[in-house]
Amino acid sequence: MKRISICLILFLGVAEVSAQKDSIYIGAQLSSDKKLLDVNQELVYYNNSGKDISSIKLLNWVSAYHKRGTSLVYRKLEDRNTNLHFAKTEELGKLVSLNIKDSAQHEIPVSNISDENLFLPLQQPLKPGEKIQLQLQYQIHLPDKKFTGYGTSDNTIALKYFFIVPDHFDPDNISTRNYHDIEESVNFNTYWTVNFDLPVNYFIESNLKQVQMNSFKGYLDSDPEFLISPNEYPSINIDTEGIRTEIKFGYNLKPEERQNLEFYLPLQLKFIKEKIGFLPERLFISEKFRGKEDFFGNNDITFWKFRFQLFTNAEKTDLDYFGIIAKKILDESIITDKQDHHWFKNGLKSYLEIQYLKTFYSDAKILGHLPETKIFGIKPLKFFHASKVNLIDRYGLTYQYIVAQNLDQKIDEKYAVLSNFNDMAISSFETGSLFNYSAEKMGYAKFDTLVENFIKRNTDQEVDPKDFLKELADEDKRTAYLTDFISKKNRVNFKLRKIKKENDSLSIQIYKNTPAAIPVKLETQTKEGETKSYWVETEENEKIKNFSVPALDVYKITLNDDYIFPESKYRDNFLYAKGLFSNMKKIKFKLIKDIPNPEFNEIYVTPRIRFSNTYDKFLIGSNFKNQSFFDQKFLYSVTPTYSTGTGKLTGSAGVSYSFLPAESIIRSLTFGVSGSYFHYDYDLAYRKASVFSNINFRKNPRSTVSRGVGISYNYLERDLNPLMIARNDYDKYGLWSVGYGYSDNQSIHEKSLSVSTQWMEDFQKVAAEAFYRWEFSPKQKLSVRLFAGYFIKNNTRNNTFNYGISRVSDYSFSYNLLGQSATSGILSQQYILADGGFKSFLPGTVNHWIGSVNVDSSVWKIFHVYADAGVYQNKNQPTKFIWDSGIKVRVIPDFLEIYFPVQSSLGFEPAFKDYAKRIRYTLVLNLGSIINAARRGWY
Fold first, then answer.
1. I want to staple 225 with a disulfide (CB 3.0 to 4.6 A). Which of 160, 364, 414, 723 is the partner?
2. At the topology level of CATH, where does 494-584 sit?
3. pLDDT tens-digit profile of 794-817?
């Protein structure tokens, strides 16, 4: 009876649907354990491709959860998420069975139901405009919800992208299309009829219209989603100028949050309708969608037991939900292929946010109310420029941040290869800034009307956003540059060159580094703060533009203020017209690293107290540099210090310049010089001068692979004591080094390779090192390191430049050893993984060749076991084999680790009387390494 009733419902649904639009009718039964979904489905598919097709491609995306090696698993690993990779069999999702018949009840064979793309051959080609009717029966084993937010859990079942549907974006049925969990549109122009058979006391919500209990029907331009739960979730109904919109939530709302939403949602919907002219009848906000589309950067800051609130709860609700609602409405009103055209809806969302912030948060700061926080009666954050940066500036600053590292991608990059950070910084923020820039130039009303008409004209059909750019250029030819702009990485820069007074006018020379005809906004300001704006038109291939403004009382001139246009740098957009700094920028000294203020040449003066080594002990001084939170091409750093261990002045200094080509196989090319003066033994100093160049090659920002080549020359001078002089030790030497490095810090399989050569007048040697670390279960890893070193020439006077077995000779002063010359005591027990890499104190060094392997494996929690083995040969000596083994305790992985040797070539070491002296430790005090580890998965 159940099958008869389902078929009857399906048949009745067919009669209600107009021609040329696909229809899907589903009867789904959820098992009592909420893990199996039995589906009876009827699919009416129209050939709207404009050509004959001989097969139909169906998307079976539940198979993305079926096993390791799928595109979904790999993408999660790129995001440093190993849950799906290590999932238990019962947590995975798959298509258990599948039966497909045509309208004549002929069974259609399917070769492999575990494929994400099912190709159904047709007996007769389907001509344009013709339809085919398919009947499907299948069973789905639902995956655990923790992987993507869709699937089953103890409390809720979220369904999206699980039902088998035709691929509307690929009518030619040639290439495969895999599930990446990127919320792309799959099935549009479709009429749905869905009926669920649920366990007792379960409720269901959907973005489809509910016609009766557990039954849904309606037309969608987006993909259907369903939330099944033992709880009923809230909804809010809003009436906006006669349009009633029901907003359903797939999660519970706290009373304060609901109260705030009831106040803000009417304002938000009214604002959005005025901008794009469209509001849907219903919106469904899932927990996953909320987490993806909320406002980035308004969360409270928690530190230990303290919590610092940037914005009030009401403001956070307003900011979060405006972006969420705006994006959901755009998803419901515009059909685009997210892979190719992600930037269009993302950019419109950011444009709407910018307009909303201008209207309601024009004076809000990026740090919210945090600068008003008092500590001991003062407001310390007021000393930071960050406390004065407006909230609306976040769009330009985020773009500036990623461009400064040359990790940005072009706007129309395929979404699947767009990094998580560029999804926000480029696809959303840069595009939104460009839309806002165009709207301000042509007039917001014209721009909004253009958007509204474009949406109306393309209702229920896939759009090509480049058509919108063409219409924009037709409306205002000064926006014609956008079509070319989105297709490549840009380094557009406007620069104020000079100001010259001519009678009652100021002649301003503006330089731009692009041939594109991009207008620029110029603003003049008096000492009293009065401003006047001008739009300066530029022609194609016009690099220098002269523009005149009335002199009046103009004190300062600014280009593209408030980061209104996404430039590669803003530091040359400010000039003073009067005073001591005429045609210049003022210099400002600052105590702490900050968001840069492009109006000034900033010099950061930072007091420094740090422990260097047992000889210099604490170094007390100041660091003078120009590096802010954002990277810069030209960097300098000078750090004079006082050594408490020697009572002498020490310090270091360096300067470098980086070339960052936008489109090149090279990501950065850096040249620099540096020098330092410190102590390496009691009353013995070293002086080091370096010239270097590094090339970092281009990488896909989603990839964890990095490659680089470095070349350097280091000149070193060392003070020698009488014993060293008697041994004819080296006091002056110059080292040349050339090396290549490759690393891939991906999850599960981490690997690196380096090859280098080093030489001076007395020796030349080459070395190679390979490293592999395998995460064989969650947080349990096995690592293998291989090292090989060989002297091509070795005429040295002693063992200073030899390869180390268990200790390294830091003759280039690059390892930051706490006891550079220590041969006994706790400082001598510091371990550096270099050269042979042995943990036990095996005597000797190597002056000919060495090969070694270092193995390390997790055992339980922070406890590991290690083993090292190797062979080496010294000149005129037989080859020797050595080994050791022991236990490692990872107190802070990769930064503080302790080694307890057990068995080695020396014997059973715990039995030795001086065993405590044989225990080794690593101590890495490198904040940069910690930051780089934390940001993996973002870019």
1. 160
2. Immunoglobulin-like (2.60.40)
3. 999 999 999 999 999 999 999 888
